[in-house]
Each structure stands twice: as structure tokens, then as C-alpha cells.
Amino acid sequence: MNNECVIGIDLGGTNIKGALLDLNGEIIEKKETPTLSDAGPEAVVNRIGGMITELEDLARRTGNRVAGVGIGVPGQPEREKGEVIFAPNLYWRNVPLAKYLYRNTGLPIFLENDANVAALGEHWRGAGRGSVNMVMVTIGTGIGSGIILNGQLYTGASGAAGELGHVVIESDGPQCSCGRRGCLETLTSATAMVRMAREAMDSGIKTVLSKEENLEAKDIIMAARDGDRLALEIAEKSAYYLGIGLGNIINILNPDTIVIGGGVSGAGHLFLDPLCRAARDNCLETAGSIVRIAAAQLGNDAGFVGAAKLVLEVN
Ligand SMILES: [Zn+2]
User: Which domains does the chain carry?
Assistant: First the structure.
């Protein structure tokens, strides 16, 4: 008996998560190890190689053959060359990740941006199952998004499609890391929420948040749940801005489903209700009336599940 299976790897700034999955996307085995990017690209690539070898050994012992490996990377991959051109969180430039791993494992290696693999994962096994045209938006330090059109990942002319986080919403808004002003992620990411809270506290507004030494977005969500006025205002404001961004993408793509991922989506109705309202208020009714906006289902598994799906997309 020789069944095929696939390996998915989610390379993050903090951890490398990987899994062996069958062709239906059922997880056979999961693994996780710290990225330790300070040790340089070669050390990180070797750690990924080690994880692939362990998962392949396991596949062999259970009578399975690995068809290939998909890897989600926190940056911009050059798919044809098998290189990571730029991954700011890892301090990587032009790292020949796929080439090196292919040489060491003999397995076909496929690279894709992490927001895109998360979208593939939710589409295959999560909140986007059965969807034909889907957008996934992940709210983290920044805003990531991936687009599925006609059932397939859409990456654009140069692989840069789906940068919803850098759609300008307020042209005189806060400075963005990309150099422009008022991009969506300066108004609605976890970073933006913390910044809004700090600005309000500096201006003397009373809130339970002033007790937090290292304020994070999840503290704001928790305080909002407990009824803190400032925290509620920030959650609603972020939802409002994200809603404007979603309204734009609904008008352009007319998706049937939008999946919201990332820590903030865990806020539930508190965030999703004002978000859905703002999205529908900011798009045409023909597109807005049919779109389903749902919280992601796979959590931290979305990355490696979607990365594994890459292997099947190409074959
Ligand atoms: Zn930007």
C-alpha cells in the first residue's frame, strides 16, 4: 500500500509549524519548533529541512509517499526561482529556500506568501469550504489578505495581489510602514489598536487599559468585553475602518465569502457585528447583500493546511 500525502510548513517569525496531511487535508501529524531567525537564514532553512525529514520518515513508516512540500513564508516569494526575495520579519533577502530544500530532500517544494496560504487553508478545510470566490483577511501586526477566484488562489501579475492592508483609506492618516499615509493597516491592525489606546490615554482618558504595562490588542478586546468605554470605542472604530476596506473589495470582486482571521476575530460579535454593518454600508447592495462574512475556523493551523494544498494546486 502506498498512499500519497503532502507536507505543509508555516514559516513564521517566532515558530515553524509543520504537518503531514492526507490528500483530503486531514492532519496525520503536527510539529512545531522555534524559528530562531537570529541564527541566520541557513540555520532556519536547516531546521525546516529537519522537520520535513521527520515528517517524511513518518509517512514512509505508515506506507505513505510524500507528493511534495508547500511552504508559507512571511514575505515575498519568487515562485519560479524558489527564492524568498524579501521577508522583513526574518531579515531575509534572496534566500534560495526551495532550491536548497529540494537538493536536500529530493521533494518538490512550493513557496507562497503566508496570507495567501492562510486563505487556501480556510478555503480547503475551514470557514471558506465550498466557496467559489473568497477573500480572507487576517488582522495581526499588520493586515494580510488572500484572494480565491473561481476556486483558485489569485496572486496577480507580479504575485502582489491582495494587499488590502495597503489600500489607502485616509490620505492624510497615520504614517504606514510602506511609506505612504492612511493605509488600512494603520487604522485597523493590532498595532493600530494599541496606538489608538496609547494616544487616548496620553490625552487623559480614563480606562482599565492604563494598568497594562505591555499593552496588546488582546487586552483591548478583553477590556471591551468587560465594558470599558475606550476599549469598546477602539474595537468599533477598527471594525468600522476594516468595513470600509471590505466594502471596496466587495465592490471590486463580488465575493460570496469573506473570512476574518487573526487574534482580533476572536472578539466575536463585538467586532464582527460592527464590521459587517460597515462593510455593507460601504458597498453596492447587489454585491453586499449576498456576501457572507465569517470568522476563520482553523486558527494557527490555517497556514500549514493551506501550504500543503499548494502541492495539489500545482499537480
Ligand atoms: Zn501601507
Answer: 3-120+301-314 (3.30.420.40), 130-296 (3.30.420.40)
